[in-house]
Amino acid sequence: MFDSLSMPRYGDKKNSDFFEEYLVRLLKERDQSGLTDMIGGIEAMLISVEPGNSVKYIAELAIMTPYQYLVTLDSDKHLTHVLRIDMNSPDILLREPKDENHYDIFRSLNDLYPVGARKHHSRYLGEILLTTDRHRVVELQQQREFRFFQLGQLAELDLPLNVSISKPSPYTQNVVGYMERPIDGIRVYHHGECIILPSAQAASDRGKEMQERLGIKEILLPVDHLATRVYSQNREAAILEYLALSSYYYWGSYDIKDQNSSTNVTKNIRLAPESNSPAKVFTANNTPYCVNHLDQLPSPTETFVRNYGPRLHHIAVDVKDGQTSGKENIDYVVDAIAAQGKGFLLETIGSRQEGLKQIFSSASEFSSLIIEYVQRFGDFHGFFTKENVAQLTFAAGQEEGVREDV
Ligand SMILES: [Fe+2]
User: Fold this and answer.
1) How many CA atoms lie within 13 A of 323 on its CB side?
2) Residue 277's pLDDT is what?
3) Which terminus of the chain faces fewer neighbouring Cβ atoms within 10 Å, N or C?
4) Quick one: angle between helices 386-396 and 300-308, nearest 10?
């Protein structure tokens, strides 16, 4: 049996007594109930974009990440593209509605927020976790008051029928799905007709050829972490909720006082590398916007949430440690991709001495998601450094959709 409380704690952010008490109770109960054993890592990440944008986003991801196009699931109301690295890393399920007037709960979540509403269908929806017994896991979670879409609702939402999917979180607005597959078996999604879309294949192939030409194909590695932004008052509940739904443990939190923000990290208890199951990071303001006028601190995190709604903010892609043409690999990657016209919100920050370098791209015009690149050097054992997180949090406030007072 796993002991989800056995891991060392990092970071310097002080949590409430409520959090510390319930963290222990929640993880103990989760381990004892068998849920930690039954729930594995992240199998797939669900992203939705506007009608007509998914092939363009495939082209972008094919250059900026190791993902390549596999197949398209053609269902009633959506085209869903399966993007894959290999079976050791999660898939991306990228979908677009066929009709721009399509309405569903995910659109409603976007429409509540001034910048989010500009792209009705574009958001990260959540992740699908591997389970050894999907129905038992759902049954246990329902007993614990977690809510799931019924089969009829899943059909109405036009989502894969072999995946159980939770209702969107009130804190993060993301869903969590559960699916099964045989050990060493291939991932299969029961969803519409499986086709190869020539335009998607061509967009992916062009991206891969470009990566090869730029010399970045071999140094871009799978996803390292997924970072969600939530309202200040929901920070602890969002962490506890994700821990209850997954088999992750609480790694710790950094307090970024200057940016009035904290970065909170959870990781998979199987201690699999992040490439196998990315860390889940939650970022929240230290104090809510309504008291900002008293301390006059910057507030990039909550401003993002007020403009876009609670949602995934960035996907971090790992960069292989090493140098190419006399530059650290991350600098080589950024220069190569920037030369193709992609913007970045800042210069690469950090150094070999500090243990890691990171950077944020500008937000994708298709998904609104930022790509972070991260290169960790040699035997750096930490996950983040406080200095880097502070600079990245500041830079995130420079993104167009956050700067706006809407
Ligand atoms: Fe990050």
Assistant:
1) 6
2) 97
3) N
4) 40
* 302 CA to centre of ligand 1 in angstroms: 16
Could you tell me if 264 and 282 are in contact, meaning their C-beta atoms sit under 8 angstroms apart? Answer: yes
Please tell me the distance between residue 281's alpha carbon and the centre of ligand 1 in angstroms.
Answer: 7
The separation between CA 147 and the C-alpha centre of its own chain, rounded to angstroms, equals 21
Cα first-last separation, the chain: 50
Below-50 pLDDT ranges, the chain: none
Distance CA 267, CA 358 (A): 19
| Type of residue at 393 | T
Each residue's pLDDT tens digit, 279-332: 999 999 999 999 999 999 999 999 999 999 999 999 999 999 999 999 999 999
∠ CA 153-107-238, rounded to 5°: 80
pLDDT of residue 349: 96
261 CA distance to ligand 1 centroid (A)? 13
Phi, psi of 282 (to 5 degrees): -120, 130
pTM here is 0.97
Q: pLDDT for 214-251, tens place per residue?
A: 999 999 999 999 999 999 999 999 999 999 999 999 99
DSSP 8-state secondary structure symbol assigned to residue 145: T
Question: Burial letters for 175-187: b for 16+ Cβ neighbours within 10 Å, e otherwise?
Answer: bbbbbbbeeeeeb
Question: E strand or H helix at 57, and its extent?
Answer: helix 54-64
Furthest C-alpha separation in the chain: 57
Ligand 1 geometric centre to CA of 229 (Å): 11
Distance CA 157, CA 48 (A): 12
d(CA 95, CA 118): 18
Within 13 Å of residue 134, how many CA atoms lie on the same side as its CB? 17
Helix, strand or coil for residue 137? helix
Q: Which helix (H) or strand (E) holds 219?
A: none
